[in-house]
């Protein structure tokens, strides 16, 4: 019998329960996964569809339960400009875009279980996890010579895929021997560097605590594999697959927050480290972020960088700079402490959470986690438990994230651009929940589609429907043109309106860079000022130091007795503040007095000359002057000042130097009137 191009199979009984055969598992069951037919789906036409199809189903027969995994290939996993950097045998470093082939990393659910999810790799056997409620099962192949082999995998993709059929171990998370994990960020640092900033963010009255962002955000991630990690896994093939398994799981975590994590670069330090990485987790983070600032950022555009090492950091398994996403400090260091990739994925998700402004759950009064600590708890708890992995984000993590995205002090505007995804490659497949060329919609397979606006059989709009979903789509029809779909969030933001022709709200844009705001000038949606930054760093009442302080640089080994070295006036480099008298003492503080004026500088750690905070780009440093590339420059660095003159008095320039037209006026230059718009809306906010 043939159906959908896949032979049907008899379901086999599970193998015996084994105890102790796998060194990292207390007990497990042996199963042989069976690939099942896909019902009601159009066949793929691409040549490698049989190797890594868009949709795949596997039956797992355990002693007490039968599970069917329904999996979709994760097309958000890698960006179309994904690159790999490594060293050839002759010592030459190369950066290349791997040849186009479908990857083998999937996400999905367990059929018949509404509250379920799965993250699976089929590259070399079936490896990953599936979750039902708060219960996690892990699966891995039992065939020898997989992860940890020092020989590069040979053979074509078809041969590797055939290994998916065979004996596998399935076990519950409580039977996995995992290391007790602890985040390396101390309570005092969180209080000093994050909580004071969060206190400065004012949320709108319409904000609902515990909610997640309405708009999808995207983290373009760059992963660096440190030399000891490379030696641990032995070859590039093993490293590639482990990193992608980990990112696949991180992405699944962040989907809970309406985020997607897209891998856009992998760098493998196979011949030695480019930054000093030691068992000292704090110095390793500092050195990695310094390398990122002066080397990586120049070569590859990305939002966040995470380093993976096999070095033992001691009690802490990860460390990250707080509230630093979209800045020079956007990154973290992580110890790969478990044989299963779930542990590393949890660590990176946690440290990335710190980059996104999330505090430890234990530090926030009234913080709620829907999963008990014994069942794994939530991602941002400071310490994991030894028999379970975290399952959710807590209410306070969601609140911190919302404040981070809204707070102008954080400048988190690199997360709104939709990355160019690998999903654009290959033939379209109706039923995979991706709208591809030739499709008008895709709500999944017929039995799982819940959207009345889409026909799941042919992925076309239902009769009479104009749209399926979006801020400007209501009951299958476009919202009236001129309807507000995204209000201005603050003084530097612009409101967006439905245009009557598209289901999505137009791209979120901001007022033109250099537009006056409060005590400064707008920059990419923020209004950065010295006072704002000093209060976020040291607390309410703090202010920028006297100009005398900005003539000096601190010597190595700063102490209260040290006298600074004169270096030339620069008010756009290190951020000198005058702390409020109520500011708590800090272990990361250098202070000196010049002419009776107090100069306070936050540093990464005591006896360090590494400044913690530099003046934010776009900060007003004089009349018609802003900080740009660490120098005080004229507003002309943003472009000509008459940009809005091209908008014919019916719009203003946005931060991309494009006309943002009033409702009823058509882009690109707002000179022709459009009809059918709501007339009561006269101008953008």
Model description:
It contains eight helices and 41 strands. Strands 3-4-14-13-12-11-10-7-6-5 form a ten-stranded antiparallel β-sheet. An eight-stranded mixed β-sheet has the order 9-8-17-16-18-20-19-15, sandwiched between helices. It is globular and about 75 Å long. Among the domains are: 529-615, no CATH class; 639-673, Laminin. β6 (55-61) and β7 (66-73) form a beta hairpin. It has 685 residues and is an alpha+beta fold. It is 15% helix and 25% strand.
Structural class: alpha+beta
Beta-strand fraction estimate: 15-25%
Low-confidence stretches: 1-14, 41-49, 153-163, 679-685
Span from first to last CA?
Answer: 63 Å
Which sequence of strands runs across the widest sheet? Answer: 3-4-14-13-12-11-10-7-6-5
Q: Could you tell me the number of beta strands?
A: 41
Mean of pLDDT:
82
Evaluate the radius of gyration: 27 Å
Main sheet attributes: strand count, strand direction, barrel closure: 10 strands, antiparallel
- The percent of residues in helical segments reads 10-25%
Count of helix runs: 8
**Coarse shape:** globular
Subcellular location: Membrane
Keywords: Disulfide bond, EGF-like domain, Membrane, Metal-binding, Transmembrane, Transmembrane helix, Zinc
Domain Peptidase M12B: 217-419
Main location: membrane
């Amino acid at each position: 019998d043939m159906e959908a191009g896949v032979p049907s199979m008899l379901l086999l009984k599970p193998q015996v329960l084994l105890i102790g055969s796998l060194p990292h598992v207390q007990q497990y069951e042996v199963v042989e996964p069976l690939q099942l037919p896909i019902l009601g789906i159009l066949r793929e036409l691409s040549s490698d569809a049989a190797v890594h199809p868009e949709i795949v189903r596997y039956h797992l027969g355990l002693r007490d339960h039968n599970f069917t995994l329904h999996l979709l290939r994760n097309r958000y996993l890698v960006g179309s400009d994904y690159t790999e950097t490594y060293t050839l045998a002759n010592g030459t470093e190369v950066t290349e875009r791997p040849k186009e082939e479908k990857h083998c990393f999937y996400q999905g659910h367990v059929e018949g279980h509404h509250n379920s999810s799965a993250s699976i790799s089929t590259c070399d056997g079936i490896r990953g996890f599936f979750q039902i409620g708060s219960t996690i099962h892990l699966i891995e192949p039992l065939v020898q010579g997989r992860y940890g082999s020092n020989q590069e995998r040979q053979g074509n993709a078809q041969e590797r895929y055939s290994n998916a059929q065979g004996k596998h171990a399935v076990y519950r998370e409580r039977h996995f021997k995992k290391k007790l994990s602890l985040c390396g960020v101390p309570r005092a640092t969180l209080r000093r560097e994050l909580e004071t900033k969060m206190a400065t963010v004012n949320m709108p009255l319409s904000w609902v605590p515990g909610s997640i962002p309405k708009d999808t955000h995207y983290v373009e991630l760059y992963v660096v594999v440190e030399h000891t990690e490379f030696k641990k896994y032995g070859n590039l093939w093993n490293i590639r697959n482990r990193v992608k398994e980990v990112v696949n799981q991180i992405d699944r975590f962040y989907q809970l927050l309406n985020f997607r994590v897209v891998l856009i670069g992998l760098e493998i330090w196979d011949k030695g480290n480019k930054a000093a990485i030691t068992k000292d987790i704090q110095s390793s983070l500092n050195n990695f972020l310094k390398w990122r600032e002066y080397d990586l950022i120049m070569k590859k555009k990305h939002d966040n960088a995470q380093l993976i090492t096999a070095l033992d950091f001691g009690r802490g398994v990860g460390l990250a700079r707080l509230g630093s996403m979209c800045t020079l400090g956007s990154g973290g260091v992580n110890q790969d402490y478990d044989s299963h990739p779930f542990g590393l994925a949890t660590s990176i998700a946690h440290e990335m959470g710190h980059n996104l402004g999330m505090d430890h759950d234990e530090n926030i009064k009234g913080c709620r986690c829907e999963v008990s600590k014994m069942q794994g708890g939530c991602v941002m708890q400071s310490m994991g438990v030894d028999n379970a992995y975290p399952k959710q984000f807590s209410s306070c993590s969601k609140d911190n994230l919302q404040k981070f995205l809204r707070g102008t002090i954080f400048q988190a505007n690199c997360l709104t651009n939709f990355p160019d995804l690998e999903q654009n490659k290959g033939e379209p497949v109706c039923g995979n929940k991706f709208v591809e060329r030739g499709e008008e919609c895709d709500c999944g397979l017929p039995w799982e589609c819940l959207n009345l606006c889409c026909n799941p059989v042919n992925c076309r709009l239902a009769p009479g429907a104009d749209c399926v979903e979006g801020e400007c789509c209501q009951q299958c029809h476009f919202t009236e043109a001129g309807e507000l779909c995204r209000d201005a969030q603050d003084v530097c933001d612009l409101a967006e309106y439905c245009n009557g022709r598209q289901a999505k709200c137009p791209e979120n844009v901001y007022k033109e860079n250099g537009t006056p705001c409060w005590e400064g000038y707008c920059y990419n949606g923020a209004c950065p000022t010295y006072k704002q930054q000093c209060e976020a760093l040291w607390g309410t009442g703090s202010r920028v130091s006297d100009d005398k302080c900005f003539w000096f640089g601190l010597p190595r080994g700063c102490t209260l007795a040290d006298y600074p070295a004169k270096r030339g006036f620069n008010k756009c480099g290190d951020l000198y503040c005058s702390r409020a008298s109520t500011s708590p003492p800090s272990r990361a503080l250098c202070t000196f007095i010049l002419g009776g004026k107090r100069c306070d500088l936050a540093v990464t750690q005591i006896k360090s000359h590494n400044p913690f905070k530099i003046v934010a780009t776009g900060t007003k440093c004089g009349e018609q002057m802003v900080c740009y590339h660490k120098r005080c420059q004229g507003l002309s660095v943003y472009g000509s000042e008459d940009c809005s003159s091209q908008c014919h008095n019916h719009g203003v320039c946005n931060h991309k130097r494009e006309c943002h037209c009033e409702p009823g006026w058509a882009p690109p230059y707002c000179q022709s009137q459009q009809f059918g718009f709501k007339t009561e809306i006269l101008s953008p906010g």
